[in-house]
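Help wanted!
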Amino acid sequence: MLYMACQNDQFRTHWRRCLTDMDLWEDVKLQFPALHDDRVVYLDSAATTQMPEVVLKAVSDYERAGRGNPHRGLHDFAARATELLQASRAAVAQFIGAQPAELLFTKGTTEGLNLVTQALGSQLGPGDEVVLTIFEHHAMLLPWRQLALERGFTIKYLPMSEVGTVDLELAKRIITSKTRVVAVIHASNVLGTILPVAEIVELAHSVGAWVILDAAQSVARLPIDVRTLGCDAMAFGAHKMYGPEGIGALYIADRLRPHLKPLLFGGGMVDEVLDDTIRYAEDVRLFEAGSPNVGGAAGFAAACTFLKSLGLERVRERELALISRLVSGLDQLPRVKLHSAEPALGRVGVVSFSIEGVHSHDAAQILADQGIAVRAGYHCAAPLTRCLDLSGTVRVSFGVYSLATDVDRLVTGIRNVLDRFPL
Amino acid sequence: MSDMYRDHLLDHVRRPRNHGVLEDANLNRHEANPSCGDVIDVYLRTSTDGVVEHASFTGRGCVISQAAASIVIEAILGKSKSEILAMGPKDVVGLLGVEPGPMRMNCALLPLSALQKALC
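Answered by r_m:
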């Protein structure tokens, strides 16, 4: 494939000069076997992304060469698995500007958020406050809601501003000396809104509160550097960034790690077990009890390398162009109401809308019948959809394989929905 | 285009039968489908021997869930508690006259589930 030849910098620069944008992105799409059928328009990457050949190969190479259990054997299989796990951790950490020692592997974003919530929340009680935003996904919301019931601390919410983001003036009044933790979704999985994380981090740190970031939707769409963002923890999952299912990562800043406790106990997390003493590992192994997902980690690292080779700035630029085309297309349709925030610059490629007289599920079904994959419903973010007084939305989300023609086919598909359900 | 949206289903959505709050209900139940946001409230008036004399519903959701509410409630009028509790997915699919498929089955079964829970 053409793109395979573009893996090194020299060739990539060359091809960027030679190819028009359209050629480049069409070629990127060719890297995804799941999308080779031209009848398919996949616009549900916020739910899960497809995997390119390089990621599939990384997983398959590991499995074919033979499995080993890292840190648990002296033979070649175990040695190779150990090296691969270490290299994968380094690649994923580097992708977000972290050190390998600050990155632990999880099952996904949800496990990462639960781990850090349990650790910080179990130290809180009556009188303490945790601040969430109205945009939170249930993966952030529910661990905190449940722990608040058990521990008696208070949850406060940063509401949505008139322009559809977090109101920082209000945030200054809500984040106070009582605030212990501020937990924020980086980019909304419903509206695509990019929240002002750096400003929220500054406010939170000024009162001594920790900041947890849910980067599930942003990590494959925006260039991210945890040092620049300044957050104390950040969770994300591989399957929303062209990697395998069942593996994710949690970034934990050095300053936060002493406050964390593992969720799981078992093999691999200890340095020594004596009759009356357990000496736990002092590095990330403490949080990774049980046999690690080495194939997943290899695929995760390959996905990071794949995204880096495309360039996140370029991915971002491309996504803005697709958003713009989509918004223009939807604007021309009657009965279609866009819910995602203006301006486009403030959002990632996740766009929600509703259609007057058509339930979102029915719209998604008619689109699915035309080969167009979108998501419908509440998107695991009930407080936000309630705040917007919506009975669900149709959500379109882009990936690096999304093309302008996908947007055009979607717009035609929505016209068919309108015809099928006249008012 | 989808075979699911047959005219008789759309007719039940546009002109739902037994829609509204049943003032003299002795049983009611609220149910929701968390993934897509279908919600339904069912109201039942049963005789002393457990036969459904009147039933109604309110709610909002997709065509499948709302049509199923209207159709299933029509079908259970005059039936006994044990007859209704014996109903299952096959009965609902038979009443709808379409196969909703695995992704929409929850929508189709929500009304029956609400009715059965109300009776228990």
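OP: Thanks! One thing I noticed: Chain A touches chain B at residues 359-362, 365-366, 369-370, 376-378, 385, 391-392, 416, 420 (CB under 8 Å).
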